[in-house]
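Subgroup meeting minutes
Present: P.N., E.W., G.H.
Scribe: E.W.

1. P.N. recapped why we're keeping a running log of single-chain structure predictions: easier to compare across weeks, and new members can see raw inputs and outputs side by side.
2. G.H. added today's entry (186 aa).
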Amino acid sequence: MIKNNLKLTSKESTSWKILLLLPLIFNPDQALAEKADREQPINIEADSALMDDKTSTSVFEGNVVLTQGTLLIKADTLTVLQENDEFKQGIATGDLAYFRQKREGYDDYIEGEAKRIEFDAITDQLRMTDTAKLWREGDQVQGRFIHYDAATEKFTVRSDGGNAESGDASNGRVKAIIQPKQRVEP
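Output recorded in log:
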């Protein structure tokens, strides 16, 4: 399980209306990630890197770009943890870290940004904290914290409770934009 330094307060709340709308935004019939990406090599470019074989941890800094198949991650800093010589977890941080990945079974991409993005390859968990935003084809959801569990295909989105000092664009509330879908006439 990914440890998260974000301390949730009683002011933070989950918007049940947004949770009901999320399946309309991100079709739960398909997993978030393109499954073929897991079989592709991971390529990382950065200004510098510190690799510790003893702890199986690597820290890449400065204009970091990670690609693996259709997955693209850009960050100021990327920490990669390995287990048994396989990718286990990545933590991307920055002014706004960014990711993009093709959705399994579709010709579109899901994109997101946050100051901190944690992804766990073993449990298929994605956590985004501080100014978190996900979007796909004009649909969008944003809040202070977004968690996506690909195994259960569930989202949790929380606001920051109106903390003006956070710089959170959501202004203390969870927000969603759902575009009207084209109707196919018979």
